[in-house]
Structure formats: structure tokens, C-alpha cells
Amino acid sequence: MNVLVIGSGGREHAIIYKISQSPKVKKIYCAPGNAGIKDLAVCVDISVEDIEGLLKFAKENKIDLTIVGPEVPLVLGIVDEFQSNGLKIFGPNKECSRLEGSKAYTKEFLIRHNIPTAKYEEYTDFKKAEENIDKFGYPVVLKADGLAAGKGVVIPQAKEEAMVALEEMMKEKKFGQAGSKVVIEEYLTGIEASILCFVDGKTIIPMVSAQDYKKVYDKDRGPNTGGMGSYSPSFLDNEKFQEEIQKIILNPIIEGFKKDKLDFKGILFIGLMITNEGIKVLEFNVRFGDPETQAILPRLKTDLIDIIESIIGEKLDTQPILWKEEKTVCVVIASGGYPENYEKEKVIHGLDEIKDSIVFHAGTKEVDGEVLTNGGRVLGVMAYGKTVEEARERVYRDVSKISFEDMHYRKDIGKVITPA
Ligand code: AMP
Ligand code: GLY
Question: Within this chain, do residues 147 and 231 fall inside the same structural domain, yes or no?
């Protein structure tokens, strides 16, 4: 079959790496792709937001299956659009994608189905929000309701700071329309974890676990990023957590989908906080996580295309899903300055010397045979090991062979995180 993958990050490179091993796949296209994806797929210069352009391309190139990487096209309704044109596409429809596209929608879903989550209130009126900002004490969590490229959550430590953030969101429209509605939420303390699931509307099956590192610097210091590295499995890989997650989170989610008549087909990413009062849901994403995927998919033994087809055909309950015993660690190499301002077009050296790892490209492009940086997160270097520790040693040996001006990466990815 001909497959089109939408996106240009490390996540999409990992998806393409995996499906390129499928005997069912003849040709892979990627829109828009990057310098690493180019080795496995034909990259086409269509933006992930250009739904009409993607649809036209899929029709003209006889695409049998489209796999959507990032959230933006999902929230824009690409799945409904492709399906109404008779095209097969993998990802949740527009209504279900609101579980990532609207924080308030997600909170309402969680509360309605008794799924543990932080207390919250939602506001569209600035004055009312201002009057109630103290309700949950400090620090407090303010969330722009809509998509804000991962920047729409702020955690002010005191009232003054909270008022500034609220004004920026609601009045100055720092995040555009995303901030027209704001969720004010109780601040939870604990350890963050996540679990990615395959969902076909009737059945929800968690993947092996993976740990992400959100802060830019070692020991979780500095501002939040899209994710600086990952390893699999995480501390969630034990019976106690798995049973609890199944019972208090996964079962109510799938029952909630059925009750609400939400035909969710795709990947559900559940962000969790492990608190002293139990496990709570922080957020949903309606797609593979980045960089969790770069640690998870290399461990998948089963053909990903088979799993995707069983989800689209609502046969996930009978689909075998097998995983490798080997563990993985993925280290993200970022541009100097990321997650704030950074420069692009630095020449990347050393890629040819990597032997023991797989390099997933993110913000890269090829110009005249040279690979240049083209984004904040540039590469994700992933290695296997019998243990996470072995994978960690291997991956850092390879990371040290790569260089570009001002690059930086965390040195503590794969140091195992466990709740106290
Ligand atoms: P979200 O996009 O909702 O996951 O929020 C982004 C980040 O903000 C999360 O990964 C957490 O680090 C943090 N966060 C979100 N909600 C809360 C909360 N209620 N308490 C503490 N931290 C939170
Ligand atoms: N790593 C978190 C995310 O993909 O949103």
C-alpha cells in the first residue's frame, strides 16, 4: 500500500521507521518531513495545516492510508474531511480531537465520568476569572483552553503573577483565540508520567510505558520544553500501577466514550500526576507523544500497520500486540536557546559515525548534501539495551559523536525516575 504520514518531527520519523519494516507498505510519503525521513519516504512540501492540499495530494497519489502525527490537523478535522472523501486515515475525528483541542472539554469529560483530576473552574469573562483567581491558592495553574503549541499552561507562584498571566491570556490574546476561555486549576504535586493507548472506540489497550523529561536542564531545572528525552519502560511498568490505571482511568475512559457516543479511533496519550492521594489525569493528547514514541515504537514487535488497520476496522480486541524485551533510551539534542529563541541552519556533524543507535531527525533539513538544523529539537538519538542503564550508556556514547554550534542536551536521560 501507499502510505502518507503527516508531520515533520522525531515522532513522525519513528512512525515511518516502524512502518517501513511492514511487508504491506510499498511506498511512503511524508508531508512535510525532514532530512532524516527523506531516507525512508518521499517528502512533499505541504504544511500540516493545509488540509485541502493534503487531501488533493492523497487523491492524486492513490494513498491507501494516511497517518496523522501532530494534533493541529486532527483538531482542524482532517479525519472527517478525508473520510467524507472516501479515504482511509488514522486518527480521531474532529469531535474526539477536542480532548486535546479544548482543556475545558477534557475537564468536563473527566468530571462527568468520575476520572480523578485536579479541581478546576472555567471562565470566558475576564472580570469573573479575576474575582475567582484565589480560589485554589498558590501556586495555581492557568490553562488557555485551546491549542497553544504546548505553551498555554502557566503556573504562577503568587497573585500578582497570576493576574499578569490572566491578562496576557484573556485580554492581550497572547495565545490568540486559544485564551478566550481559561481553565483555572488546583496545583497538584507529585511525579508526572504518561501512558499511550491504542483505542478503537470499543477497546483501549495501553502500550509499554515511557518516561518523558519536560524540563530543559538536568535535574529537572529550567523552563518546560516539548520533551528532552525518554526511556521505556518507566516506573509504571508494574502490576500495582497497571491495575490501578486500568480500573480508575482506562475503564472509565472507554465507558465514557461509549456513553458520550464518542467514536475515538487512534492514539490516546494520557498525562498523569502520581500524587499522594493517588493517580490523577492532567491532560489528554490525541496522538503519539514526542519523544515518548521514539522510545516506544522501537520496542513494538507487531506490525504497526496491522494494529492501525485493526483500529480502523474496530477489531482491536482480537489484535495481538507484542513487545520486545529490550529497553530503550532516547536523548533529544536541541538548538542553543531552545525552548526560547534559537538560531537555525547550523551544520550537523558526526551523523555518519553513529553505529549503535538510531537517529530520529526532528528539526533538520538537507541543503546541498549537508544536514542543517531547522528547529528547536533537532535530533533524537535512541539506543536499545538489556537494561535501561545499558541503553543509556550506549546512547550517550553516540550522542557525544554528534556536534553542531551551540547544541545542548540533558546528560541525565535514562536515570530511572521513581515515585518516593
Ligand atoms: P498540560 O498541557 O495540561 O499537561 O500541562 C502542561 C504541564 O503543566 C504538565 O505537563 C504539568 O507539568 C503542568 N500541569 C498541568 N496541570 C497541572 C496541575 N493541575 N498541577 C500541577 N502541574 C500541572
Ligand atoms: N511529550 C509530550 C507531548 O508529546 O505532548
Answer: no
- In angstroms, the CA 247 to CA 55 distance is 40
Residue 368 Cα to ligand 2 midpoint, Å, equals 32
Number of domains in the chain: 4
Amino acid type, 122: E
d(CA 271, CA 194): 5
What's the rounded mean pLDDT across residues 46-54? Answer: 98
- pLDDT band at 259; cut points 50, 70, 90: very high
Does 169 reside within a domain?
Answer: yes
- The reported pLDDT for the residue numbered 344 is 96
- Does the beta carbon of 283 lie inside 6 Å of ligand 2? no
Q: Determine the distance separating the centroid of ligand 1 and the alpha carbon of 186, expressed in angstroms.
A: 10
Give residues with Cβ within 8 angstroms of 126, minimum separation 6.
166, 167, 170, 171
Same domain, 176 and 195: no
Tell me, in angstroms, the distance from the centre of ligand 1 to residue 142's CA.
Answer: 9
The mean pLDDT of the chain is: 95
Task: Give the 3-state secondary structure of residue 179.
Answer: helix
pLDDT in tens, 157-174: 998 988 888 888 887 788
Threshold 0.85, pTM exceeds = yes
Q: Which atom of ligand 1 is nearest to the CA of 120?
A: 19
Which pLDDT does position 404 carry in this prediction?
A: 98
Cα Rg for the chain, rounded, in angstroms? 21
Domain that holds residue 352: 327-408
